[in-house]
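Hi V.,

Quick status before I head out on leave. The structure for the redesign project is tokenized and pasted below; the design run finished overnight.
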């Protein structure tokens, strides 16, 4: 992968999108099993997210090089509370060390806001949707991608490869979270 990156000078965001496409699609397919109009099914989907999001956001909060972002764990906890559910124990995050890996994880977490806004429209009437409705502010996603691309250019192919590994770890975390909830 390093040779291809050096030859094309691809932007980090494009590399992450391409290298994690299959994992992203797999996670989307797994989470599509939940019926967001059904209270119990929707609550189960939120519990699955709660197994992953807090640990991911904790890793992001510990990395000072990331651009500003807004945590959604409190919103998720509020929605679960309204549904009569509690936050589950988070899964372990199996993330490579380093700022680049955390940047890749942030790509997954912040990217999920885009899908969340789409999903929020499908939530049943009367069900809380603070977490899914927590969209990016105007220009925030583009600014994050711009930061990611600049960090990739500065860090080079090794940085982008580490960020890709972090993004893959993020998608794997959400996949394990969904599987844990379905098995529960």
């Amino acid at each position: 992968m390093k040779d291809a990156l050096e030859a094309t000078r691809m932007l980090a965001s494009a590399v992450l999108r391409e290298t994690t496409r299959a994992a992203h699609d797999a996670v989307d397919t797994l989470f599509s099993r939940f019926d967001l109009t059904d209270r119990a099914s929707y609550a189960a989907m939120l519990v699955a997210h709660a197994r992953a999001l807090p640990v991911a956001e904790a890793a992001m909060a510990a990395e000072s090089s990331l651009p500003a972002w807004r945590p959604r764990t409190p919103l998720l906890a509020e929605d679960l509370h309204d549904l009569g559910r509690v936050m589950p124990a988070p899964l372990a995050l199996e993330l490579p060390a380093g700022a680049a890996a955390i940047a890749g994880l942030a790509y997954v977490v912040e990217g999920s806001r885009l899908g969340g806004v789409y999903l929020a429209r499908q939530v049943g009437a009367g069900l809380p949707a603070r977490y899914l409705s927590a969209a990016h502010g105007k220009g925030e996603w583009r600014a994050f991608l711009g930061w990611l691309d600049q960090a990739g250019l500065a860090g080079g192919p090794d940085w982008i490869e580490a960020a890709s590994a972090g993004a893959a770890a993020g998608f794997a975390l959400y996949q394990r979270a969904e599987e844990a909830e379905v098995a529960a």
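Above is the designed sequence. DSSP finds seven helices and no strands in the chain.

G. will cover questions while I'm gone.

Best,
W.
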